[in-house]
Specification:
It is built from four helices and nine strands, in the order αβββαββαβαβββ. With about 250 residues, the chain is an alpha+beta fold. It has a domain of about 120 residues: Protein of unknown function (DUF541), domain 2 (Alpha-Beta Plaits, 2-Layer Sandwich). The strands form two sheets. A five-stranded antiparallel beta sheet has the order 4-5-3-6-8, covered by helices on one side. The protein has a four-stranded antiparallel beta sheet with strand order 1-2-9-7. β4 and β5 form a beta hairpin. The radius of gyration is 29 Å and the shape is elongated. About 20% of the residues are buried.
């Protein structure tokens, strides 16, 4: 009796493992899978990619002030940030495209070796916004204008690029992804010796990796001799489809 019980448990574990492995994209599944009520089919993933030239630049920038008191640091940061905001709007950046991302007031401390304690020696005020630049060719000149306006308090954390309306590009990527999935399914059906039926399940996922640059900090921004060179390059829009095809006898 115990022998038959162990055999039954082992068979159940084996079926469970087969069922889990069958869920992976690109595998042929005959039994044991439940996906939208389907118990069999050919599961595949297709990918479509389109290279595009960005038409939107987003700058993450702001100011940082350090003074002996909170009031002094806040006043200095507010004055510098007002100049930065004026520089953005004067350069053609719409107010609706400027959004506060981060604001903080924090103490600046120093370790005292004699007392073995930290002491507060001042305060730091940081104010960061994200500015969307729709005229991407003006990105370099806008950076320079912001750097000059904020002076030594200017901080430019990053720049990213995107496409304002990617819908047409996704149409192309979607067609490529479906064709890729169908080619894989046809090959799997041929290798398995079965006939490929119609799709019975379709799911889509979109990935948009931005072009992202870190680490632009202006310590001496006044009197820049030349315009900051900015190259948006190309970015890749990627789309993935998961498709389950029926198996015909």
């Amino acid at each position: 009796m115990k022998k038959y019980l162990l055999l039954a448990v082992g068979l159940a574990v084996l079926l469970a493992v087969v069922g889990v492995s069958g869920c992976r994209p690109g595998s042929t599944v005959l039994e044991g899978i439940s996906l939208s009520g389907q118990q069999e089919g050919i599961f595949v993933a297709g990918q479509g990619k389109v290279s595009v030239v960005p038409d939107i630049a987003t700058l993450r920038l702001g100011v940082e002030a350090r003074e002996a008191s909170v009031a002094e640091a806040q006043a200095r940061a507010a004055e510098a940030m007002e100049k930065v905001m004026d520089a953005l709007t004067d350069s053609g950046v719409a107010e609706k495209d400027i959004q506060t991302q981060y604001f903080s007031i924090s103490p600046v401390t120093k370790w005292d070796r004699e007392t073995e304690e930290e002491s507060v020696i001042g305060y730091r005020v940081s104010n960061v916004v994200a500015a969307k630049i729709r005229d991407i060719d003006e990105t370099g000149s806008i950076i320079d204008a912001v750097a000059e306006a904020g002076g030594d308090l200017t901080r430019i954390d990053s720049i990213s690029f995107s496409v304002d309306d990617p819908s047409d590009y996704y149409v192309e990527a979607r067609e490529e992804a479906v064709a890729d999935a169908e080619a894989k399914a046809e090959q799997l059906a041929k290798l398995a010796g079965v006939s490929l039926g119609k799709p019975i399940y379709i799911s889509e996922g979109i990935q948009v990796p931005p072009i992202y640059t870190r680490g632009a900090v202006y310590e001496e921004a006044v009197g820049l001799p030349v315009e900051t060179p900015i190259s948006p390059g190309e970015m890749e829009l990627s789309l993935t489809v998961q498709i389950v095809y029926a198996i015909l006898d």
